[in-house]
User: Which sequence fits this backbone?
């Protein structure tokens, strides 16, 4: 992570609070963590400053041996720009059905991360925050049918977000998938 990205992330986290605050946004009842792991394409978001121009954004989760969630967020600021990578560490908040995490970009601050919607087949999810400042609509595929996207926007609005703040994330594939996800 570059110094500029780290400094921006720190500022955002200091302004946005941490997971220790009471969760006021709806969370799903339960997340099967092993099933949730893997790649999620960011279809749309209310972005943080660092990801406001993101293209081909993919979030990957992997369970670590210590029970934390190793997270890798990959994106480009232009379709053919350099790959940018953030690696926050997720920690499940106890007694939340695995639906509320503290996402740590910089020690000791953990930003709230709430699985607010999860399709029964684990193919789409919405991640939100009680502050209603950031949100992510993600899917296992780089695109969704328009009708499904509209349904997820309604879900986001039902959480209290303003849909006019949502930015669609360009997923301009086929880019070499291994290069896009950072795999070698």
Assistant:
């Amino acid at each position: 992570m570059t110094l500029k990205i780290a400094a921006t992330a720190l500022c955002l986290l200091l302004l946005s609070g941490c997971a220790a605050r009471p969760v006021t946004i709806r969370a799903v009842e339960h997340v099967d963590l092993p099933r949730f792991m893997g790649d999620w394409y960011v279809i749309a978001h209310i972005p943080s400053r660092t990801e406001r121009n993101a293209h081909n954004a993919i979030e990957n989760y992997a369970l670590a041996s210590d029970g934390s969630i190793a997270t890798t967020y990959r994106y480009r600021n232009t379709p053919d720009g350099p790959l940018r990578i953030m690696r926050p560490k997720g920690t499940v908040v106890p007694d939340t059905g695995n639906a509320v995490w503290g996402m740590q970009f910089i020690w000791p601050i953990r930003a709230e991360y709430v699985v607010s919607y999860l399709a029964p087949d684990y193919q789409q999810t919405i991640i939100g925050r009680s502050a209603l400042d950031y949100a992510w609509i993600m899917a296992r595929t780089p695109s969704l049918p328009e009708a499904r996207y509209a349904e997820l926007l309604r879900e986001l609005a039902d959480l209290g977000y303003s849909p006019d703040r949502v930015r669609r994330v360009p997923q301009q594939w086929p880019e070499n998938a291994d290069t896009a996800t950072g795999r070698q």
About this structure: The two ends are 19 Å apart (CA to CA). The CA atoms of residues 105 and 160 lie 25 Å apart.
